[in-house]
Amino acid sequence: MKKFLTALALTFSISASAEYIMIVPQQPGNGTSVWSQIVARHLEKQLGEPVVVRHIPGAKDIPGFNKFHNDLRFNDNIIMVSHGGNGIGYLVDDVDYDYKYYDSVGMMNLNIVVGKKQGVDFQSGTKAKIAGSSGRETDGMAIAMLLCGNLSTIQEYLDCWNDRVVWVNGLKGSERRLAFMRGEFNVARESVVSWNKYYTDNSDADAEIWFHHGVYDLNTKQQKEDPNFPPGLRFETVFEKTWGEKPTGPLYEAYTLSRNFRDVLQKALWVNKGNPNLEKLRSALTDMITDPEAAAALERETGEYEWIVGDDGNQVVDKIRKNINEQKLKDMVWWHENAYGYPSVFKSNLLN
Q: What is the pTM of this model?
């Protein structure tokens, strides 16, 4: 009852407000929350109208997005902020939200870094030890392939994973970093900004980049090098250096699907289809990202990455949805359940 009354009060306060309200599905202080505060502050400047952030946290950051889908999106002043974990959840979790019902205001096409302790050679048999959590499922797939090479079946990958990887659920971000610093983990996964903040030039971390996932090229529909890093660290490049061939097979196919939905949709702004404020918001966002002050603030938080603004965002969603097929979805669900212990569902409706 208390949760219901809280949600009801939130809905009423939002409905009664003349402000633009950005819904963040996380606790304050998390990465998407910090990013949203920066965007809200600078978007407000361009709109000339108040933009405030409201948090609706919950398990795997799903309740806030579900609340937007079921109720809040019908308010023309509501903007939903989603992140990469929501992209993965869309594919394998029992969620209400569905991107096809929304219009993209804009999104940042981002990347994730996976590092390791300096000098660790996993090819010598050392187990990879990493803290798992929602949003890291894509990284786990890449790690399995780098450790195991190209295998014929998803079961073979699981057997290798169980032998070569220690995946520990349940730790918060600060706990994961401290555990890496102490040497309890030998693999770290971070956003680009967090990697630079906590690991680059930090001798106590004793860390080096193992690989990153690259940046999705909207024209070729393939990954390209990340200009924020020296060449040669993209996952496919590191795999080929390690194994002498390109990555292929069932886990790689599932990985590319997971990577596209997580990284391309990693920081995105949505409104309900038909929202009369859409073009005004898109225009303000376009002005915001060309404002030097806003661009510098966002670069400090995310790195130097491109924005996808306007209807291009809708087209991107259409493109990556075409990468969905039955086998990839089934393999993703199976891998999430058996490698990570995450309950997942096969969603046949995504094949339509």
A: 0.92
